[in-house]
Amino acid sequence: MSAPGTDSPDWIAVDWGTSHLRVWAIAGDTVIRAGQSDQGMGKLGPSEFEGALLALVAEWLPEGKVTPVLCAGMVGSRQGWVEAPYRAVPCTPLGETLARAPTRDARLQVHVVSGLKQARPADVMRGEETQIAGYLALNPGWDGVICLPGTHSKWVHLSAGEVVSFQTFLTGEAFALLSEHSVLRHGLSGWDAAGFTVGLAQGLERPERLLARLFTLRAEGLLDGLSPALARARLSGLLIGAEIASAKPYWLGQTVTVLGAGALSQLYVQALETLSVPVTSHPADDTTLAGLKLARKRLLQQEKLCAN
């Protein structure tokens, strides 16, 4: 999208995950253009990141001008464009310094936000810290727990503007692997919400029986004619239920915000409401942009300090 009468952007915001690349051209505080592609970190070699970015933003870059680019996500991983060092929790979601990525095009100046790490239990995040920073910027003084559903779901405890601790669950990836590459794939397709409700209850009640319950889906399909739509939804319910049961130390007695969009986030909201947990949801796009804008302000502050 673009705004009439606008020229080149002041800077470009980038959300670069494992499977996606999203970009926003920003003038002042307003998004004037946006674009996206499937050129996520997982598809690119070290020398291919600049080209993937330019494929989306080259026409936004005027000749003879350097345009700052602020990136968050897996682009800063060891397999990414440049490795942005992790910061140890407890800490604020965003630090004072950014990693600089090497570029050949003189019109680009690319900086990457650092992720967060936790020593015990060992855990890491990249990209979510920017969403968390954005949520806090939009909700000053907020304390509680943020749940970020996705391929690798995260539960994050926040207090006094700092990430105190967090825990990652492989729930989304497990669903993809089981539904697409395991023996269960033969009996899964479509979606019947009644199956999710049943699976959720089973996962919450007896998470230690998860592996047995998973094979029961296959057996019920063969012996009892369990429909593929019910089975697929029940698989999701089992996995999300087991995750939420394991994450009880995070949500018990806390206010929870589910940070995300679409059907997956609503499934987490539904699950938490089943347990009478005070829960709200917020779209992730808003918080990603708000976090990148905050990173941009800090970069400008650092540049001003260095100039003085």
Model description:
The protein is α/β, with parallel strands linked by helices and about 300 residues long. It has nine helices and 14 strands. The strands form three sheets. Strands 3-2-1-4-7-6 form a six-stranded mixed beta sheet, sandwiched between helices. Strands 12-11-10-13-14 form a five-stranded mixed beta sheet, sandwiched between helices. It has a three-stranded mixed beta sheet with strand order 5-8-9, with no helix packed on it. Residues about 1-5 have low confidence and may be disordered.
List keywords for this structure.
single chain; 308 residues; alpha/beta; Nucleotidyltransferase, domain 5; 6-stranded mixed β-sheet; 5-stranded mixed β-sheet; 9 helices; disordered N terminus
Give the overall average pLDDT: 94
Which consecutive residue ranges, at least 5 long each, have pLDDT under 50? 1-5
Question: What structural class is derived from the secondary structure elements?
Answer: alpha/beta
Amino-to-carboxy terminus distance? 38 Å
The H-and-E topology, N to C, reads as EEEHEEEEEEHEEEHHHHHEHEH
Radius of gyration in whole Å, from Cα? 21 Å
Instruction: Give the strand content.
Output: 15-25%
CATH architectural designation of the largest domain: 2-Layer Sandwich
**Given this structure, which CATH class of the largest domain is correct?**
Alpha Beta
Largest sheet descriptor: 6 strands, mixed
What's the CATH H-level homologous superfamily of the largest domain?
Answer: 2-keto-3-deoxy-galactonokinase, substrate binding domain
Q: What share of residues is helical?
A: 25-40%
Q: Indicate the CATH topology of the largest domain.
A: Nucleotidyltransferase, domain 5
